[in-house]
């Protein structure tokens, strides 16, 4: 179609005649002559050489086309499709008004800008006619601020012009699935990576890529026809200047934010990169200007930024090449993606400035989406690499933690109300009621003289590891290995307790019995089975950490611990394997099932309160254990007589028992004591308590 146009009103000429309050679109009597218009796009400020900043102008264009009688457009719903039009306008077809967006202002300014995109104007039935049809459009717009930057919004910006077709074809050809897809993808990627940064703030390149994707999403959405069809193109819609500000404002930070992403992705804290700082500073100034400048200056601001954009894109290529030269990981992939996108970006920028082609090819959007995918693949690769490193680090930490727990039991840490070893500090402590368990390999000094140094360690480990296994199985834990001795602790509440009604006393005693039985099956030809002495006491103690900044250790202190140690030492004196105090004995839930007997009431060295000692002979040889069961009541009778000072009657009982079983060390001990006191009567302060003057 051939178009012609005329400038029908400016500040120097008389305005055209009015018809019923409106400018006469036929304008046949216009004082301006009609000129043939060039090919689209049509920027009237440039075509009519309007003086910069000279105000508001009106331009009238017209064209004609023929339709045959057989043309289907005469029988189907038809419309006019305009890729863009602005700033104010009226459209007539065959002298019938189809649509107008015309807003007068008394101060000779545009009251509202209506530069729309992707506009479809339906043609009412009967307006199109066979033969010649004439379309006329009246424009009103503002002169450019400078002669170097025309006001592209005043006229038609796209080279494709317009088309008249059926509404069905217009709607089918106007789909923007690609834009919708890209907008959604960029937004999701951007939002995801921003949230990812919130959880991992040490990697700021996730934040910059997230912002880069979000800005890209906003930019492509604001440039698409989709936003105009939904929010702008309806009659009397909003002022489009806000949408153009949004479009330009989202474009300005994209490249600088990408540079920040690339810098942190490849270099982290290396270098100052003054060029990136300068580009970012300049872009911030352009971004602010986009929102605060009067709208007529917006295109000039954009043009200046476009001239800055080209060196920024070149610098992006240079930056990527430097990353390759320095052998940065993934730099080759990024360079390829950047190279393709930058070339299309430079071409798109030059086309926008100089109208080389006059339309924005979709190839840039496709190249840009490929570029985004390349970056995402790099981020995924980086994340997988970090994840593998994290797994290796976690494995190493797990190994160190397991190693630490071999020195500091996890039960000890739990009792201190700590979740991990790193939370432990010097001075942490807690008071708790527990059962303390001391075990010692008696006669180890003699055995060690027969073994080589390395065999000594093997010998100890053979016993100690087996002992620890029994202790752990019964919900206790080893606090210390002291040479050939073990200090273990049992708590009333343990997740590892297999039976609900078991308490610390039951668990400790069960461990002792199993250990005594175990010593009979472990041994070598040179050493034979080991002899074991175990002392158990229950009471209040303090668990805590001691040491210095360079060395820290756990410990338990209190009378309960000291008494348990003394009781263990007494196993050698009484020649028994397991001794427990009355504090432990009275807490046993299974008293009827425990093969135990009272053997003495003593006051150990350094203490003032007596303690009743019980021998547990559950682990003794069956014959000896049966003997002790059979004479337990007789032994108790003798001990009572001994305590009340009836040494003659007590001696008679112990002598009789000794004759029957001389291997019973307790019977033998009491036989000697009562015989001694028969010959040397104790004083009137006799209370039947045996006082120890050594540990």
From TrEMBL:
Region span, Disordered: 1-24
InterPro entries: 7TMR_DISM_rcpt_extracell_dom1, A/G_cyclase, Adenylyl/Guanylyl_Cyclase_3/4, Nucleotide_cyclase
Cytoplasm listed as a keyword: no
GO MF term list: adenylate cyclase activity
The entry's keywords: Membrane, Transmembrane, Transmembrane helix
Pfam families, per the entry: 7TMR-DISM_7TM, Guanylate_cyc
Guanylate cyclase domain mapped to chain residues: 435-568
GO biological process: cAMP biosynthetic process; intracellular signal transduction
Keyword Membrane annotated: yes
Transmembrane segment boundaries: 180-198, 205-222, 242-262, 274-292, 304-322, 334-354, 366-384
PANTHER family: ADENYLATE CYCLASE, TERMINAL-DIFFERENTIATION SPECIFIC, ADENYLATE CYCLASE, TERMINAL-DIFFERENTIATION SPECIFIC-RELATED
Protein's name in the database: Adenylate/guanylate cyclase domain-containing protein
Organism: Leptospira fletcheri
Lineage, top ranks: Bacteria, Pseudomonadati, Spirochaetota, Spirochaetia, Leptospirales
């Amino acid at each position: 179609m051939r178009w012609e146009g005329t400038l029908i009103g400016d500040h120097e000429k008389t305005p055209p005649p009015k018809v019923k309050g409106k400018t006469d679109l036929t304008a046949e009597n216009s004082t301006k002559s009609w000129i043939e218009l060039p090919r689209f796009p049509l920027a009237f400020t440039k075509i009519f050489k309007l003086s910069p900043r000279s105000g508001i102008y009106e331009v009238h264009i017209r064209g004609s086309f023929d339709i045959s009688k057989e043309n289907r457009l005469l029988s189907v719903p038809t419309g006019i499709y305009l890729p863009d039009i602005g700033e104010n306008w009226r459209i007539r077809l065959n002298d019938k008004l189809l649509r107008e967006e015309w807003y007068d202002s008394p101060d000779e300014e545009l009251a509202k800008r209506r530069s729309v995109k992707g506009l479809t104007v339906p043609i009412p039935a009967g307006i199109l006619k066979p033969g010649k049809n004439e379309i006329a459009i009246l424009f009103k717009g503002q002169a450019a601020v400078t002669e170097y930057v025309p006001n592209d919004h005043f006229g038609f910006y796209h080279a494709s012009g317009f088309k008249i077709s059926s509404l069905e074809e217009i709607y089918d050809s106007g789909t923007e699935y690609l834009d919708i897809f890209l907008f959604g993808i960029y937004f999701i990627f951007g939002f995801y990576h921003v949230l990812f940064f919130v959880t991992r703030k040490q990697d700021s390149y996730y934040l910059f890529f997230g912002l880069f994707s979000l800005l890209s999403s906003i930019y492509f959405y604001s440039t698409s026809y989709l936003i105009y069809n939904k929010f702008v193109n309806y009659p009397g819609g909003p002022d489009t200047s806000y949408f153009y500000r949004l479009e330009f404002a989202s474009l300005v930070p994209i490249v600088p934010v990408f540079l920040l992403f690339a810098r942190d992705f490849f270099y982290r804290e290396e270098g100052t990169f003054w060029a990136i700082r300068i580009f970012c500073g300049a872009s911030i100034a352009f971004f602010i200007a986009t929102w605060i400048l009067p709208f007529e200056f917006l295109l000039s601001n954009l043009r200046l930024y476009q001239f800055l954009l080209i060196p920024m894109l070149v610098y992006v290529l240079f930056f990527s090449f430097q990353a390759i030269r320095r052998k940065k990981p993934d730099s080759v992939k990024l360079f390829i993606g950047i190279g393709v996108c930058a070339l299309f970006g430079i071409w798109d920028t030059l086309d926008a400035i100089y109208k080389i082609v006059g339309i924005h090819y979709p190839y840039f959007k496709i190249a840009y989406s490929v570029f985004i995918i390349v970056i995402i693949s790099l981020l995924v690769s980086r994340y997988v690499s970090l994840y593998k490193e994290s797994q290796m680090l976690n494995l190493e930490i797990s190994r160190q933690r397991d190693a630490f727990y071999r020195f500091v039991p996890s039960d000890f840490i739990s009792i201190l109300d700590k979740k991990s070893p790193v939370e432990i500090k010097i001075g942490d402590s807690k008071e708790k009621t527990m059962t303390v368990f001391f075990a010692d390999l008696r006669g180890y000094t003699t055995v060690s003289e027969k073994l080589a140094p390395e065999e000594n360690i093997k010998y100890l480990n053979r016993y100690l590891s087996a002992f620890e296994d029994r202790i752990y199985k019964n919900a206790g834990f080893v606090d210390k290995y002291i040479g050939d001795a073990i200090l273990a602790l049992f708590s009333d509440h343990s997740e590892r307790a297999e039976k609900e009604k078991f308490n610390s006393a039951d668990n400790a005693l069960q461990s002792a019995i199993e250990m005594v039985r175990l010593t009979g099956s472990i041994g070598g030809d040179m050493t034979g089975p080991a002899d074991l002495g175990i002392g158990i006491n229950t009471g209040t103690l303090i668990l805590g950490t001691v040491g210095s900044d360079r060395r820290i250790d756990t410990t338990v202190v209190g009378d309960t611990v000291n008494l348990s140690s003394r009781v263990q030492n007494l196993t050698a004196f009484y020649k028994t394997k397991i001794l427990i105090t009355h504090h432990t004995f009275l807490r046993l839930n299974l008293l009827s099932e425990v093969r135990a007997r009272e053997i003495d009431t003593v006051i150990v060295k350094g203490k003032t309160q007596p303690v009743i000692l019980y021998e547990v002979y559950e682990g003794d040889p069956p014959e000896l254990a049966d003997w002790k069961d059979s004479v337990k009541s007789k032994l108790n009778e003798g001990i009572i007589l001994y305590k009340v000072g009836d040494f003659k009657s007590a001696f008679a009982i112990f002598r009789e028992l000794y004759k029957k079983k001389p291997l019973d060390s307790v019977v033998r001990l009491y036989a000697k004591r009562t015989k001694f006191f028969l010959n040397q009567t104790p004083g009137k302060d006799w209370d039947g308590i045996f006082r120890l003057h050594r540990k």
